[in-house]
Amino acid sequence: METGVVTGILNSTIALIFTWVAYKTGSYIYKYTPYSYPNARISAMEAKMLNSQKFNELAESRTLQNFVVNLEDTQYRDYLSGLSEYSVEEIERALEKSLAGTYEMLYKMLPKRSRDVFRLLLEEWDVRNIAAVVKAKLRGEPAIDYVSEIGLLLPKVKAMAEAKSMEEILVILEGTPYEEPFRKLILGEITASQFETELYRLYYGRLLDYALSRKGDEKTILLEFLRMKVDRLNIVTALRAKAAGMSAEEIRSLLLSGGSVDLEGVIRVDDVGMALAELDSTRYGKVIREVREELERNFGVLERALDEYILQRMVEVSRFYPLSIAAPIVYVLKKEREIKKLRAIVKLIADGVEPERIKEMIGDLA
Amino acid sequence: MDPIVYVSLGAALAAGIAGVASAFGVGVAGAAAAGVVAEDEKNFRSALILEGLPMTQSIYGLITLFLILLSSGIIGGGFKFADATTDNIIKSVILMGAGLTVGLTGLSAIPQGIIASAGIGAVAKNPKTFTQGVIFAAMAETMAIFGLVGALIMIATGVGF
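YS: structure for the whole thing
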């Protein structure tokens, strides 16, 4: 072979190898490096989360002032330092602000291509707040008591709670995605529970659209997470509705689309027992079996069990994808659980419950 | 191409690719280190050690660069393969292959940085995992060592010093 031919083959081979290597290396770097800083920091923040020893100390606080003092060496210090009084409402508000702060911090730390999910997750609090305020208004109760200090629409939600009429609320909700369902509600086209379902339907629709617009691992992880959240909501709604004696048609109208479990069999059966048997063959069967005895008396147990299942599943996912959106999601789920426990302790202390009993009860919340 | 181009390319690729890969690896691990130190300064020592692991590939690249320049005579005398004969082209291509081997296996610094980054996060969460984190990250080093050994064999047997 001539020298020119040999060098030609060599040059082409080198060009080919370099193109391939550059492409693979580039995609590898693009995929992982943006999560390096946030995920490592999140790991460090997880190390600072409250452990069972700290929860026991908090349970032994006896007074709300001691409770706040016990949290001075934790991440909650900044939020609790500005309390005007040591009341349940004030402390709860500070804890909610701390959770809102966590969402905001994660939003700032994460790469642009995936961080919007934390804004969207924060919007779930708007949905909860709007539903709670509207239901309280319909019952004629002071709506402001039902507002959580978290969410992107918090000023609007507070204005809604202060509003004198439903028409005023409609004006406040103008321009938001929740305007149309509220208009239907005040026109009497839908009931309060259908209004709530409609809010969640809109919200989860946007979340799922967002997840579907992502690529690769991010899409896989977000879809897995969101489908579990939809399943949790649908399962609890279907069982509650079944227990209330609603028809299959009525229950179907309350369910959201986008979940991973087909609940058609669950809503068609006659009672809760049979509905639970239908759920046995799903991915949630094991979790439901474990709480079945308690479940028939209290659906809150099922909610907690499903929340725990979602958390554990996301922990597994984050181990499989250590540099991904899974770790921030796990952190926020753990933070929510931690704050839920702290709120429970605050209420129990205010009610004068004995420390030993508080320890037992918060153990059940885990 | 002239033999000098192949030889220079080999030396440049060995040090260049491995160096760039090390920079990316250290960068990824460094970002993680900054993240954990931002939360707790006590993480500095373990984060620093893990962050430094992806640097070794650039050292292998530098060693190979010197060996290629030495064996081709660019360092310590005149260039031995100046004439574009088939024998000289083959020798210069062998040197380029040696450089390419070290350069490409030096890309292991990038996944090593990613492993080190995950390790830094794990150590921040549980300091007892430091040794395991170092071992996991060091595993990625194996490929770079194989590359260096391969390059040494190629240079020693194909060209000689």
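YS: worth flagging: The mean pLDDT of chain A is 90.
IM: good catch. Also The domain at 114-213 of chain A is CATH 1.20.1690.10 (V-type ATP synthase subunit C fold).
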